[in-house]
Amino acid sequence: MKPIENEGRTVAEAVEAALSQNGLRREQVEVTVLEEGSSGFMGIGAKPARVRLTEKRWGDGPVPAPAKPAAPPSRPPRAPVQRSAPPPPRPFIPAPTYVPPKPAPKPAPKAAPAPAPKPAPARAESRPPRRSESRPEYRPATPAEAAAACEKASALVTELLTLMTIAAPTVTASWDADMERVKLAVESQDASLLVGRDGRVLESLQFLATLMMSRGAEAPVAVQVDALSYWEKRETAILDQARSAAERVKADGRPVRLEPMDAAMRRLIHRTFAASPDVTTASEGEGPWRKIVVRPRQK
Fold first, then answer.
1. Residue 224 maps to a domain
2. What's the pTM value of the predicted model, to 2 decimals?
3. Disulfide engineering: 196 pairs with which of 52, 189, 201, 232, CB 3.0-4.6 Å?
4. How far lies 258's CA from each of 181, 214, 238, 264, 289, in Å?
């Protein structure tokens, strides 16, 4: 048998695929690991595992076949069991009737003693009034704070892209006053790797950037990382659906539910229709099934 080489995500998957493709059993071959698999960072730089299968030597003779298990010894047939006739039914004997005993007469109630006089309440010590702990009111970021956030987010994401071995990344930062966030546009020849499947790599990258930006800050700063205008196109499509739903609600007065979406898209719809005089928006559902409901505004 010629050596067989195969690849897979892991060594076990590569061995199982080679055995099934060539109709072999595990005890017939010897496995040599040529290269261990690697999952990479966020799916980037993943390498498959490679193995080589060679025929296992059993001396001069052929490969011994596995011994067949011995057939179990046959048992003699059982003799039929002769059952005796059922016993005759017992005569019915009614149970004796239960007669409850007569209750004993209750004793006459005793007069309750006069209550003792209550002591005068002690004078309560004066305590200082509690201070009301209220959350600080929301205020928009100043131009200086917005510029500092853009500069910090740009440097942070550039460092992350360098660690991810993205070729020559160029990061452009801008402040989105409507959504109160930093928008970063990444340009690189590896931009398609950043988008990934359904924008998952971009979503993970901006989650890390938002988490690192909010450490030690007075207020959390949201960061959006975009490449190939992925988020811009998706936000435009989501807002078009929301506006179409708002027109339907104004026409027939019935609530309309949109498809489930992530928190960033729901926040975009809430902020867009916050000042609408005709409709209002709310979120319902849990986890990945959380969605936006557009309802007519009560006037």
1. yes
2. 0.49
3. 201
4. 24, 31, 9, 15, 11
